[in-house]
Each structure stands twice: as structure tokens, then as C-alpha cells.
Amino acid sequence: MAVYTEISDEDVRTFVAQYDLGDVISCKGIAEGVENSNFLLVTDRGPFILTLYEKRVNPADLPFFLGLMDHLAARGLSCPQPVAGRDGVALRELCSRPAVIVTFLAGMWPRRIQPEHCAQLGEGMARLHLAGDGFGLTRRNALSVDGWRPLFEASRARADEVKPGLADILATELDLLEASWPRDGLPAGIIHADLFPDNVFFKDGALSGLIDFYFACNDLLAYDVAICLNAWCFEADGAFNVTKARLLLDGYTKVRPLSAAERDALPLLARGSAMRFLLTRLYDWLNTPAGALVKRKDPLEYLHKLRFHQQIRTLNDYGL
Amino acid sequence: MAVYTEISDEDVRTFVAQYDLGDVISCKGIAEGVENSNFLLVTDRGPFILTLYEKRVNPADLPFFLGLMDHLAARGLSCPQPVAGRDGVALRELCSRPAVIVTFLAGMWPRRIQPEHCAQLGEGMARLHLAGDGFGLTRRNALSVDGWRPLFEASRARADEVKPGLADILATELDLLEASWPRDGLPAGIIHADLFPDNVFFKDGALSGLIDFYFACNDLLAYDVAICLNAWCFEADGAFNVTKARLLLDGYTKVRPLSAAERDALPLLARGSAMRFLLTRLYDWLNTPAGALVKRKDPLEYLHKLRFHQQIRTLNDYGL
């Protein structure tokens, strides 16, 4: 949970007075999102989310993120939409931080993933990929293949503190990924790049919206699918759930068919995705002070997933 | 901030289905309250607060707290009101914890106390004292004069780690308070006992409600006033703000006049109130592990307040 900045009642009132949202009824910090401070703001017009961007978000990226949410919402995707003030401007400042009010999405993220969630996730992700088409701004994925070596070097010397031999495993895998990564030739576009269960809302069993576009970027569309295979299709005991994976892929291809080249690349993309989360978790694990408010996530969960995908040559090997 | 228990979407839906509140639109953990887990629950009927009682609340006290909120709300006080399920029962269970849904109060607590807040607090507290009359249940104040010595003994040996000489100061003060405490003879009734700024909501400059009745009990009414003198009338630099104190007392007496005996007792009650928060903060300070999620509050803030009141003989000495 994360509320890094405390806002005073006067500050909220003054801020909201710049919008056409009526009076502030209430504003409470909420325990969602780990990068920013989020508040559930209730005004005469209903509930909204007020976000203050903390230091892990680069302010230069905000026009991309906010513009993307507008673009996607205009194309019918259910996602938070930035609310403009009376002057037409959505991105403002509050408590010396960039701040924005976005629309409120119904639904809750699923704590226990059921197969049907994966089917709907697949569809929703494909709709996102189609809706991203035509968006005018671009953002490089700093956490794709070219970003992994610097990240690895930052943790290499201490990687074996987490598990003996880990540095060597990562070095070998990184060489392979860099040599064989499908840099061109696969369809690219806007991807979410962080579509974990806590960023996908369901209401009454139906997908009701996608949130948290603060890792969104331009990259291979199938890489987003690979991220979701890792984030949604492994059980808590580490077992890969073939049913969930099949439903995810079926849901996706109903909306946007995967080419033969994309299907062939999926096992490698899944290894790359496992590498990406393994490396960022490893870095955070080694650099988060014990007792910090942010809970560290286990990097070895992703070593397990990486090893699983290393044994896979074709989609058939998944049991699909 | 505090969300100790994570609730799944299925659990929330099943829980809310027992009420006449329509469908669940959203349920987000909020960063308010330090004793319990609180969620802002939005249903078709609007926003509500869902509270799960964690181990610091004694379940045997819950009928008192919930009954009191009902009693006060029925007498026109603006406070959260427990919502009953279709079976007429308000106190239920969720995630193996006692759980209740209460009505949502408009407003925010004031981060910067202005004198006018104190005037309205005084009025609101007096209305609470009048509205509590006739409530059928009673609850002893375990944190009043009889509770201080056991609390002191639990910290005595290590008190000087916080400040050299602190144990002696506390022992002397405790002897005096026990000998001179006005145990009888002053008007008693229901008091809030924790009316700090974060438990008092204002909207558009007007007091909009009181929350968090989980320290409420039967005690001297003027002791509640003394708690508020300490909680609302000192500036961040430690200075006692006479204007705020005067407005608080004037606001109170407009609704419920203080007797001469109550006025005479106020300096002593203020010492006792300072002692109570000094002792609980000292205990928490010595017994909260570094790095715990709960932020420790400085006990010495209340040593300063205690010393201030020790120099006061009559209300005139406050400059009132």
C-alpha cells in the first residue's frame, strides 16, 4: 500500500476548484499502486481517483501516459481517463508533484485467478493492442532486451547472495536472449507491459477495466502476451496451468489472431519476460532496506518461471 | 495507514449480498485508522465504510461501540451508523474477524487547525455529551486514572531510555493525580476519549461529523474537554494557543455549560489527559519494533504538555 504524500483538506479543495466537479465530499488515501500516491476523491459528481506522481515516474513520460489513456478510452477501452480542468488541462501540480484526476473504474482485481479470468484477460489485452493503433506518441521500452544487461550488471556482484550460482545462470541466459531476440519482424505497437492481476478489474465475473498504464510503451505485441503467461498462468506452487494459458491465448486470438511467427516466438518471449521481472525484483531485493514500507517481491519466483520456459521449444511443449 | 487484512473480491461480494445495498462496484483499502482495517466500499447505493476489527479491539466491546453509534445518530449527531443486513444484524464476520459496514460521512479532517475549527469542535463535543445521555450500555474507561499505574509500571524500568529522569517525573505526577483526581462529584456520561483532529470531519468549513468511537466510554464529561485542549490547542512549536482554547470552551459552553467545579478541575484533568497519552505513547515507543508499519508517536510531546499544565492553578492562568 502506498500513500507517500499527505494532502491537506485546503489543498484538495483549492485543487478541485479548478475543475467542473462540484464540491469535495471526501478524499481518502488508498492502499493501491506502489509507485504513486493515490486518493479516492468523492465530489458532488461521484467518485474519482486523484494521483500524485512520486519520484519513480519520469515527468517527461506523463504526456505519453495521459495521452494514451485518452486515446484508448476514446476507442472504447475501459480504462481511467484523465479529467481536464476548466482550462482544458489535465496534468497539474499538487504538493509540488505532478497530479491528475482520472475517472473511477468499477470492479476489483481478482485475488484468486480462475481460468475464466484468463480468457477475459486475453480478450481485453487484444482489444488494448488494437485500440493503441494510431496513437501519436511513442515511448521506448526501457525494460526490454537492451535494458537487461545494465540491470544485470547493477546486481551481478551480489546476485549469488540470493542464490548461489544465480549470476552465472543470468549471464548465460542474457547472452542467449540478446543473440536470439526477435528485434524486428513481429508486429509491434502499444503494450501495457505490466498487466498483472492487480491492474485488471472484474465486476460480476466480467472484465470491467484495465488500470495503471505507467509502464506502457511501444514494443512487440506478443511480448505483452508473454508477460501475462507468466503473471496469470502459474499456480502458487509453481505449476504451469495449461488450461489458463490456453484460455488466455484463445481469448486473445478471438480478437487479434497471432501470426505463425508470433506463436513460434512465444517461448522465447516468455523467457525474456521472466528475465525482465527476475532482474528488476533482484535489483529491488538487493537495494530495498529491510523494514522499508514497500514489500519486496521474491526474485526466485521468476527464476522458476524462467527455467520452465527454458525447456520449451514450441507452443505444443506447453501442452497447448 | 492501515490495512492489516486483505479481502478477496469474492469475499466482499458474498458479504455484501447479505445486505440490501445492491451490487459491489468497488472496495479499496484506505489509509485511515490505525487499529482496524478500513475499506471504502462503493455499491449501487453509494459509498460506505467496511471495517474489519483487528486484535486491538476487544470483541466484547463491539456491542457497546455499535450501539452507541446508533444511539447518537438517532439523536441527530453526525457519526457513522452501523448498517444492518437483511436479517437485522449489523455485526457480522469476514475473514475470521468481526466486521461491520457503516455509513459514509462527508468531509475531511483538518491537517492545519484553525481557531474556528476549535469553536466548532467544542460545540460538536458538547452535542455528543448531551446525545449520549440515556444510552443503556456502559463501558469503563480503562485508560483513566486507575489504569495509569499499571501502564507506568510496564514502562518504568526503561522510561529513562527515552529521557533521563522521566521515570521519576512520572512517579511523582502519578502520586499527585491519584491523590487528587475528582473521582466523584463531576458530571459523568459518554465521552469520545480520542477526539483528535483525524477523528473530526469538516466540509466547507463546517463540522460534518465525528468518527472512530473505539475508545468511547463512561467518564467525566470535562475529561473529554481536557483531552481536546491537549489535542487541538497546542501549536507545532509547543506553544499553547489561548485563542483556540477560548473558542473551544466557548463553543462547548454554548451547548452545555460547564459547572464551576468542572472549570476548577480542568487544569488537573488536562494534566491527567497529558499523562494518559504520555504513558500510552511511551509504552508503544518502547514496544514497537523499529521498521514496523505503524508510525510511533513521540511521547515527549505529551511530557511538554504535562509540564505546561503543571504550572496552571486556575483557568485564568491559561490566559482565558
Keywords:
homodimer, 320 residues, alpha+beta, Aminoglycoside 3'-phosphotransferase, Chain: A, domain 2, 15% strand, globular
How do the strands and helices of this protein lay out in sequence?
The structure is a homodimer of 320-residue chains.
Chain A: H1 9-16, E1 24-29, E2 37-43, E3 46-52, H2 62-74, E4 92-94, E5 97-103, H3 115-131, H4 145-156, H5 159-162, H6 166-180, E6 188-191, E7 200-203, E8 206-210, E9 217-220, H7 221-232, H8 242-255, H9 260-287, H10 300-310
> How would you name the oligomeric state of the polypeptide chains in this document?
homodimer
* Overall residue-averaged pLDDT value of chain A: 94
| Helix-strand topology string of chain A | HEEEHEEHHHHEEEEHHHH
Q: Termini distance of chain A?
A: 37 Å
CATH architecture of the largest domain in chain A: Alpha-Beta Complex
Largest interface: chains, residues each: A-B, 37 and 36 residues
Radius of gyration of chain A: 20 Å
Please indicate the count of domains of chain A.
2
Helix content of chain A: 40-55%
Using the coordinates above, name the CATH class of the largest domain in chain A.
Alpha Beta
